[in-house]
Amino acid sequence: MTETTMTRASDTPMTAHRLGLIAVAVLLAGLVAVPVAVGDQFVYHIFITICIFAALSTAWNIVGGYAGQLSLGHAIFYGIGGYAGVILVNLGISPWIGMFAGAAVAVVAAIVVSWPCFRLHGPFFALATIAFLEVFRVLALHFRELTGGATGLMIPLKIGWEWMVFRERLPALLIAFGMLLVCLAVAWAIRSHRLGFYLVATRERESAAKAAGVGTVKVRLMAVAVSAALSAMVGTFHAMYLTFIEPESMFSLQFSIQIAMFALIGGIGTVWGPLLGAVLLVPITEFARGALGSEAIGLHGFVYGVVLMLVVLFLPNGIMGLVHRFTAAPGKTVGEQAAPVAAAPRSAVPREAGREVMRIEGLQKHFGGLHVTNDVGFTLREGEILGVIGPNGAGKTTVFNMLSGFLKPDEGKVSVLSPSGEWQQPVTPGDFASLGVGRTFQIVQPFAAMTVEENIMVGAFHRHPHVGDAREAARETAHRMGLGPYLNAEASSLTIGGLKRLEVARVMAMEPRILLLDEVMAGINQTDVRRAVDLMLSIRDTGVSIIAIEHVMQAVMSLSDRVIVINSGQIIAQGDPHDVVRDEHVIEAYLGKDFTHA
Amino acid sequence: MDTFLQIVANGLMLGGLFAIVAVGLTLIFGIVKVINFAHGEFLMVGMYLSFLLSTGLDVHPYLTAAAVAPALFVLGALTQRLLIQPLMSARDEHVQIFATVGLSTALMNLALLIFGADIANTPAHGVRSQVMLGEVRILTGQLWVFAAAVALVIGLQLFMKKTRTGRAIRATAQNRAAARLMGINDKFIYILTFGIGAACVGLGSSLIAPLYPTSPTIGTYFVLIAFVCVVLGGLGSIPGAFFGALVIGLVDALSGFYIGSDLREAVVFTIFLLILILKPSGLFGTRMNLSHVSP
Amino acid sequence: MKLKSLLTATAAAALLAGAAHADVKFGALYPFSGGLALLGEESFRGVEIAVDEINAAGGIKGEQIELVRGDAVDNNQAIGEARRLISREGVKAILGTYSSSRSIAASQVAELSGIPYFELGAVADEVTGRDLKYLFRTNPTAETMGIMTIDMIVDEIAPGLGVAPEDLVIGVIHEDSAYGTSVAGHQERYGSEKGLNIATVQGYPTSTVDMSSLVLDLKDRGVNIVLQTSYQNDSVLFLNQSAEAGFEPDAIIGGGGGYSLTATAEAVGDKMDGVLDVDFTQYAVNTEFTPGLEDFLAAYQAKYGEDPRSGHSLNNYVGAMAVLEGIGAGEGFEPDQIVAAAKAIDIPSGATAAGYGVHFGEHNQNDRAMMMGMQWQDGKLVTVYPRDAAVAEFQIGD
Lengths: 598, 295, 398
Known about the structure:
The structure holds 3 protein chains of 3 kinds.
Chain A: H1 14-38, H2 41-66, H3 75-90, H4 95-114, H5 122-142, H6 144-147, E1 153-154, H7 170-191, H8 194-204, H9 206-211, H10 216-242, E2 244-245, H11 247-250, H12 253-267, H13 273-293, H14 299-314, H15 318-327, E3 356-367, E4 370-381, E5 385-389, H16 396-403, E6 411-417, E7 423-424, H17 429-434, E8 437-439, H18 452-460, H19 467-481, H20 496-508, E9 514-518, H21 526-541, E10 545-549, H22 553-559, E11 562-567, E12 570-575, H23 577-580, H24 584-591
Parallel strand pairs in A: 5-10, 5-11, 8-9, 9-10
Antiparallel strand pairs in A: 1-2, 3-4, 3-6, 6-7, 11-12
Chain B: H1 2-32, H2 39-57, H3 65-84, H4 93-115, E1 130-133, E2 136-139, H5 140-162, H6 164-174, H7 176-181, H8 186-208, H9 218-233, H10 238-258, H11 264-278
Antiparallel strand pairs in B: 1-2
Chain C: H1 2-17, E1 24-30, H2 37-56, E2 65-71, H3 75-88, E3 94-96, H4 100-113, E4 117-119, E5 135-137, H5 142-161, E6 169-175, H6 178-193, E7 197-204, H7 212-220, E8 225-229, H8 232-244, E9 251-254, H9 262-268, E10 276-279, H10 293-304, H11 312-328, H12 335-343, E11 372-377, E12 380-385
Parallel strand pairs in C: 1-2, 1-3, 3-4, 4-5, 6-7, 6-8, 8-9, 9-10
Antiparallel strand pairs in C: 10-11, 11-12
């Protein structure tokens, strides 16, 4: 799924990017100019409807697109806003205040509803939101004294800006347009700042995001809260516009699906997609209903369903996807991807290892009846490269997972020396990240929808909250890692060697003190292995301590200061690399008893 | 006490009804790993077909199953082949959701177009006659539905465990790549499974049609309830879906009587949410089926 | 631009749909598509027949009436269409709307624009409960329905069963939309005022697939009179499932909706016999009380080639006739002139095809509007209450 990559204008062809922005500006201006020019009440109504739907879809997109949580119950927030507004107006309070009251309630509801459900993947999150919507609707019907029940609620027809009720249409259009601008501004702001990057990263690869120090639950809650607040505010305005609301239409599943659909057709996850979707579909729906609606009941809905299926099959990235195919600047993807990086000449004398920075004591782990980690303990010294080897299935990555917060040991302790000198026991990936422990993954986990630069920025944000600073840091890290020429390429277009390097670059942008590398040499060719070794040495020379799981013996031997051998969950040998490989237990583990005396 | 027993009986019968719908859904989800939002519309289509055949040929609605089940098999197979298969490699799950939502909308409106908004009543042909079990009244049709649900569950389990095709299906569900290496045509397996799941609903619809009025919108309610049963029972577990359906049927009947008819739905959905949040593997599910939850 | 072509198309359609000489325009705002379309269309037909009749007789104030259709498929659309009819089409007044929600939404718009709105078929109280200056309603309301149901119990059913009204145990059940909820609310209120024992009032979702728990609850409470306000699906379910549960109340009174439809009777067969119904005037009624009914039926069959599918067309016809002729008798087509003309309408009971008179009283509601009490006898729905309008006798206590 392609994104509107928010790289600066100076990096992409100026014309395409500029043209895009101009087109959007013209479109937005047209939303006000056209009805004013035509001057017809009905046209005003259509454009007000477009603005409302576009605003709601844009707000939805923050959750459904950026965060990837497909909510099909967003009408909950819209309905809360509507009811809050109407109830307060009937108590004599202006809807401008009611709007914020509704937004506050919606935020609370959003957090209560979403937080327990974030663990649910795609369709189940959607189902849960549908279930919540139905519960809200039934409760709204039930609590008649508050909501008016099935017969609904009306507002008294008090005219004026204070009450958002007008005789002419222009003021209503201006308010609707204003709300649309607010939603677009918020969506754009999120996307181009750290929160947006974090959301996309969480959506793409939650584990990698966690390893990069992203508080994945926190950022999604923020997205949901913002989206809910915006939806509620639009709901309040719409209630004033309709002057009459009822549970059926305020908490409607159909409506929720429609909002999501506009975002899909326009381009999920993009800033302008939902706007395009609404601008295109609302008039078409009106026209279709006019032409087909009275012909035969159901024809219009049938066409709707078919169009949805066709769009999903042939145009899953929506209109923005089409636009991108024609305008995106292709980043450099051809050519060498693991460029040689100058490493500081290695001193002939083995470096003196510094103080201990990480202590692992007595780790035990069971998966059901399987004892996967059996009393594993060792220490890591500052500036040391510790190699971890062992046959397949020995449990090396399991240990790594316990050293980075992805798995909790049944027994044992993992302690990390903080920069200020105390020993701490981190628990979550976030804790480990804040203590300066970074890791890569055995199976590369790039954020495929982002460019190389943006991928690295996710790591850089850990140290530089500001977009500008993070970009600078990312660029610098990319150059150091030899990925400079590929900054604007889509991550998904890199080769395996490039992806591994990207993974390392991302974690290096976090400026870690301790680096856990999981088979970074796997699957790459000889030349690349040599380059990777040089790279790791240069990293170590900057003061980073490294633990590296490796199978490629050449790398292990030339890199490691010390080596640990793990077999069947236990450490069977530790020490100098050359000694370890001659240890008979190690040979037996790898090759079997027959070879121990070879 | 009599009333209570009657409520329990009603609940169990209702559960049998939900089970027939849920079993197909859990099969499709457990194997193909797709949430079929159009499942309720499959039921609706089946019911309309039963109605047409039964009234047109003037036969007992149960006999129409011979035509309706295969017809729905084809519908399910086509859905997999034309709609889901092209999307199976999509990186984002939302495309599949939207695809089946689109199918659901299209089918519902197509029915509206063809049959109008009026309800269609399949003649009962005697299935509405009553049977007394002690003081409790049950319709013969309801007993048939329950029996069919049980038979379906047993039949499917036997099929999955004892036949070659069944094993192939289970293998594909557990590890698609490995299954392909074993020479199993995974694409065909998915089409077959979707078809079987739909056919189950088709069978059910012939049994349900004489008991309940059919309308274009009847599917929406059933699909949500079916999802609840499936999640409650544990995704992919066929016996789980059956027991989950019985539980939901009982909850529905009991809450309808003791709490109030207007809040029944709220009770059922609240249970659904609690299960999803607290015990997503369902009451009978194993840890293996947690693909819908992050650790 | 798409919008321009939409507007052109609609204007063209309006021209084709209307009379040959488009002199004075009135808007007809009904749900023509979506879930309510069937009865929305049916209601509109009544208006069409009225307009045909008036135009054939020379129109009003010498001008032919042109009806411009607006599709009120949902609330947002309803207000959009209302705006279009008013500003684009320049209608002098809007007639509508069958659905209470659409009516409430659209009439707020009309009020803001100062254009008269004549509701001919929606029953919820809130429609005229808002004291709008330009809104009038000709048809009987949920309140009328509730009151008549209770009156029927007190006047006919209790005596027919040989018991005092207070000794009956009444259960009120209803589908949970505005329609069912408002009727049930009035039944409860008026019933309590009359000292009746309302044992329970319960709503259920319109799309319910099973009512067995509800039936058991009613049975458990010893309910012997059931008042149900429902659409087709739930009427069928209830009637079938009650019989099957062995629940046989002394009387079941429906509040229109599914209880007035032949399709329901066909679905439940014999169980429909003896079931009572309170609704808009239907067709098996004493025509001395409803002059013009037979002519209406003939006109309907001639124009549409089938029998009316419900009483909505008749009701809208009566309302439209009264209103349009009233405007014709007034001073002109300006909003205030129309309002004045409406207020002057004074048609006595027994003088219209629906049997009730027209006079706009408090809140601009027709205070002579009346429902009819009916009963299914031998597969036909016949009027049994009030006596003047009855064509058959009450059959109680079997």
